[in-house]
Amino acid sequence: MLNAIFIGSIYALFAVGYTLVFGVLDILNLAHSAVFMLGAAVTYTMVVNHGQPFWIACVVGIAAAALMGLVIEHVCLRPLRRRGAPPISALISTIGLALIIVAAVEQGRAGSFFSWLWVDGANSVSFPANAVPNPTWKVAGLTLEASKVAIIPVTILLMLVLGYVIRFTQVGRGLRAVAENPRAARLMGIDVDRMITLTLVISSALGGLAGILFGLAIGDISPYIGRDNVEVRGLAVIVLGGLGSIPGAVAGGYLLGGIEVLALVALGSNARAGVAFAALFLVLVIRPQGLFGARLREKV
Amino acid sequence: MDFLTQLFTDPVGFYNSHTLLIAQVGINSILAASIFVVLYSGQLSLAAPGFMAIGAYTSVVMGQRWHTPLPLSIVAGTLFAGVAGLVVGLPVLRLRGVFLAIATIGFIEALRFGVILNLPITGEGLGLSNPDADPLGGLNIVLVSVAVVVFLLWRLTKGRLGHAWAAIRQDELAALSQGINVSRYKMIAFVVSAVLAGFAGALESHLNFFVDPNEYGVPRTVQVLTFAVLGGTGNIFGPVVGALFITTLPEIIRQVANYRDIVSGAILIAVIVFRPQGIVGRGGLAILRPAWWPRVRTRAPAPG
Predict the structure, then answer these.
(1) How is residue B18 annotated by DSSP?
(2) What architecture is the B2-274 domain classified under in CATH?
(3) A26 interaction partners in chain B (CB closer than 8 Å)
(4) Domain residue spans in chain B?
(5) B282 and A102 Cβ atoms separated by less than 8 Å
(6) Which of A12, A82, A122, B7 has the fewest CB within 10 Å, making it most exposed?
(7) Which residues on A lie below 8 Å from B50 (Cβ)?
(8) C-alpha separations of B111 from A70, A253, B95, B105 in Å
(9) Distance from CA of A181 to the nearest CA of B (A)
């Protein structure tokens, strides 16, 4: 039960970044799962190989992810947008970038060109127990670890802040205007490119944070965690919640976490993923606007 | 440059020492043809690996359990994939664009995790071994099949069906108002695509000694999509050239094998940014056309 909430929080954080980009740009950013992995990998390397305290490592990890958001925008999206290319082109260029990021981390070994980034090659590692402050409490027979419990308030706080920014601030109004109609937004004096860059940076920072939390709670960090754990599940989550809807993505994240834990208990580990994707398929066929999306065109 | 040097100086030796690679190019070309059909009719369907898995497992299981002759089991796998295409197509073809793409991804992953990994007949997570595989003899079948598939699709896209698909791709509503039975032609495209993918899967399973369920997941679908987008979807030759390019690229850049994915990713981005119509686009192999050659005025149709 608690596991459902932990994993659901991670799915939600990841999917909010996914859905934010889709809401504003109508583009599926398939490099998002690589950014997720990068956040976790950089944080791990900072802690273990550069001997930094955990919180500094977290900041660096999130910064690296945010930086990657800039790269996505400038390399993969802006040249295509200038030309008015169809969204499928951006799908491919972000796949290309994801390949590059994963391969760069995968090649990180002691002595290699990428050793500053990662030294464990294709291996899976976890944060050393003494590097991360992790007190545990026993409540009513349950063992609560701080690293897992902290996920819940962090997620909720971030969602509230994000919701506030989008709904009530000048920047948020700009974002919503761009999502609604980029050309009209430009005519109103909004710097569309800057808004889109900002979207990518926020989205990627959230993705990186989700990666760090995943590394903490699941104890598994490797070049493949993004691809294997959240890439397709992230899609499932944002579809469950309605594409482009942030509250939908949060709800979808917890829902998928719940479904998966139930399926794991009831049917075994293979069925777990199968049930998630079957749910995705059914929701799309029966209710393409998502379980929570009332209107199909609702964005951000 | 060993690879390219040998190709040009010693083609026979090249053929003999790279049969597996050539066969893989052939299989991937058929897959590229499969996704070409759906893209050409304006549907972003990513279901190919799912139908591949159905074709592969059907033909191998038939061959092993009932000892059916090879052609029969391949045909059975292909047809079964087509039937599955019909069943899956009925609900999903109401969806468009990225929704269709995500639904088909849901289909392949639900099939892989939900069905294949849980059925005893498919060997669950272990896959199936296929001791009767014939990598060398299979090569000729593959090459002939590629030629037939490419020729058929080339003729098909020039005919009534192809025009209907192109019309639907450009504007579904306009096509409907011209009396084109949109849902019927979309379904035909989807089933043809499923049949081709099933055929590719059945063929591939008889080239390898092992059917691995993890082959039929999302990475495969991404690869197939890149064949089409890199090559260009204006005509059938684009995706086939894309398949040839992507499949042989790792061999060509073998010196930097460690950084293979980095180079592939960079090439992918470069083509999308600098050559959006694909390698083959705008009147054939535009790169190779000499300057004096008459320029064919065609509009490059945008996929998806």
Answers:
(1) T
(2) Orthogonal Bundle (1.10)
(3) 98
(4) 2-274
(5) no
(6) A82
(7) none
(8) 36, 22, 19, 10
(9) 19
